[in-house]
């Protein structure tokens, strides 16, 4: 790639970079780096697309507050975002039953049999849905 006023290449030790100033849609495409020495060559590809990056959620998985939660995320995008949608789906949360799990039953010959217990929904009004 030939350097231009907007595109310059730089090398500092083993770090090489292409700097593109004032990115334009004409800069979008696939870029590849080919490194070669006496033992062989290696290639690595990168796409500059302008599409937004996947969201990175920044919130802790649990709230510090008992009755509120602040969900935050970050998206990088070349042009300003035109739309942001957050999808939501209810899930059924199960809480352990209030009774204790009995010990394993043991037969007279020493064989142990598993026992089971039931769980109750955290909120019976919650269900699975889209």
Number of strands: 10
Major sheet size, sense and barrel closure: 2 strands, antiparallel
Average pLDDT taken over every residue? 81
> Strand fraction band?
25-35%
Tags for this model:
mainly beta; single chain; 130 residues; Ig-like_dom; axon guidance receptor activity; Ig-like_fold; Ig_I-set; two-stranded antiparallel ribbon; flat
Structure write-up:
The protein is mostly beta strands and 130 residues long. The protein has a domain at 7-74. It is built from no helices and ten strands. The strands form five sheets. Strands 1-2 form a two-stranded antiparallel ribbon. It is flat, with a radius of gyration of 28 Å. The model is unreliable at 116-130 (pLDDT under 50).
Q: What topology emerges from the helices and strands here?
A:
Blueprint: E1 7-12, E2 15-20, E3 29-37, E4 40-48, E5 56-57, E6 73-74, E7 94-96, E8 105-106, E9 112-113, E10 119-121
Antiparallel strand pairs: 1-2, 3-4, 5-6, 7-10, 8-9
Provide a brief overview of the structure.
The protein is 0% helix and 34% strand. The protein is built from no helices and 10 strands. The chain has strands spanning 7-12, 15-20, 29-37, 40-48, 56-57, 73-74, 94-96, 105-106, 112-113, 119-121.
